[in-house]
Amino acid sequence: MNQKRHTSPSRRHGKHKPRPTSLASAPKVAFDGAKLFLQEGRQRSLLRRHPWVFSGAVERLEGNVQSGDTVQVCDAQGGFLAWAAYNSASQIVARVWSWQAQEKIDADFFRHKIARALTLRKDLQLDLHSNGMRLIHGESDGLPGLIVDQYADVLVLQLGSAGAERWRETLTDCLQELCQPVCIYERSDSDGRVREGLPKRSDVLRGQLPQDLSVTENGIHIAVDVAAGQKTGFYLDQRDNRALIGELSAGRDVLNCFCYTGGFSLYALRGGANTVLSIDSSADALQLAQRNVELNALDASRAEWQDADVFEALRKLRDQNRKFDLIVLDPPKFAPTAAFAEKAARAYKDINLLAFKLLRPGGILASYSCSGGISDDLFQKIVAGAALDADVDAQIVHKMNAAADHPVLLSFPEGAYLKGLVLRVAG
Ligand code: SAH
Predict the structure, then answer these.
(1) How far apart are alpha carbons 98 and 150 in whole angstroms?
(2) Residue bearing the CA closest to ligand 1, atom 21
């Protein structure tokens, strides 16, 4: 009996206690630069090709290194695991550039990685639908901390890691060479930069920024302010979701909450919505939204714009007994990390509950979360709780994600931040 218990599958797979010795050390690779040694057994996530090394996993650093420099990440025995960018200021102390021992992290490496990301977008034929798209999606395109968005002839670069910052000039040169834009603009001003110990920066890097920049997405013209707009200027990730809402809008009274520059509203108006009420707390975004209605020669008399806090506005609409046939909820990131999940869950539930109450029977709710800290499952549970409290039966008719120019690397599930549920309430 004892014998049998010792060889049970759970034991063999080390379920009850870690068995670091079962992980054979990789071969050593000679390197003049600094080496980052992980603690015994802490190489597991890297062996699964997850590209982050957390400071808690590190045993020691050997050699001199500045933040942003390339280090060799090794297991406890000194076996090669990866080449990574080091950052002493961040909890993510290293972000992997490459898993190949023979790789050299230099200008050619970055040119090759960027070219590969561009080829993916070409292969997907994304340019048939839009001249605004994400060209490089950080970790998911093998370039941790690097975001590059294309708006017509302009590229916007966002550097969110010390490694990407270290290679700023090289990355800019490669992008200029491969894409030949009229302008490369840097929008390295996200709050994430502070966590990485990097100053915020926003300026023209190459060329000149055109006065009136716009993209054409599924035939809809959208003015983009890359210098002062949110993120890099526009929410490219919602492209497919906006198209779906356009298809569902005919003859409906639509409410678009957190409308920014009017994305969903423009599609709804073109799709034949009866009326579209759009709400956002940014006056600048609303101004651009109204310009977008003109750019597309849409019927402005069917559009109403409210500069308001959505949480308050939804309550007012409820008190006024206003009703809608289609509601879009696309709030900002309430939970950047799992630590904020509980507070965020309350906010999501609040707006979803109010939205369910504002829907006519047979109405549609399109509800999104771009919070990395809220999983798909949790989001669905929150929305289910809201429907229950609102006393409505609802069916999921579409599960949505970010568009294909925001790919998700299988080994980096954190890349799948945007989730959406399109629901129909019972008629
Ligand atoms: N749906 C948009 C993107 C929305 S981004 C698109 O397709 O382009 C989130 C928006 O929420 C931003 O425009 C921001 O200004 C707005 N916002 C953030 N908090 C808000 C609040 N409490 N009330 C109203 N708008 C808010």
Answers:
(1) 25
(2) 309
